[in-house]
Amino acid sequence: MKLIGLYRSPYVRRVAVSLNLLGFEYENEAITPFENPEAVSPHNPLVRIPTLVLDDGEVLVESYAILDTLDDMSPAEKRLLPPSGDARKHALKLAAIATGTMDKTVWAVYEGRFHPKEKYHKPWVEHNEAQAEGGLAYLNDAVLKADVAEEGWLADTDRIGQADVSATIAYSFALMARPKLGVAEKFPALKAFAERMEATNAFSSVAP
Ligand SMILES: N[C@@H](CCC(=O)N[C@@H](CS)C(=O)NCC(=O)O)C(=O)O
Question: So what's the pLDDT on residue 52?
């Protein structure tokens, strides 16, 4: 498989960590669609990353759809989301809050990156940052409620799952991309949890 997109993108990274955990072999083409659109557009009409080219040439786009397909391609005992019921609902909600946190952090970054200085709208940046902090606060509470800062898994599963992957990457991305928010000081339980995850090979081998 070929995973197109650099690991600085939280969406690419959550696919990369999931590929590692599920045990798929892949190569990474570390590019951005802004600098190298010609490398993405033949595969993905949206010209976005992550884009995953499977061994048979089929192409998957959008991280949630990619992850769903990868789980479907994996044996039940390896899948990163519970199959059904309350366990699945709980894990999906945590992963959705984490992904929404990534979205709002990315939107805050894009305002500064893609608008000329005179068009930079600070209230819009602050609006997105506040939403990202709301997501991180929810995940921090979830770590405390599940008591998993030092041991165990966020969605009360018996092994690592998609809630753990996405919550960790949402935190690590906000820490890297919005240093002024001070997320390490504001969300210490989530910080401890994420640092534990980041120390494992599945995460550290795909560091941004
Ligand atoms: N919902 C998408 C978001 C992907 C996304 O926003 N990727 C960014 C890089 S972090 C991108 O490709 N941006 C280019 C663009 O949207 O024009 C997913 O989960 O895959």
Answer: 98
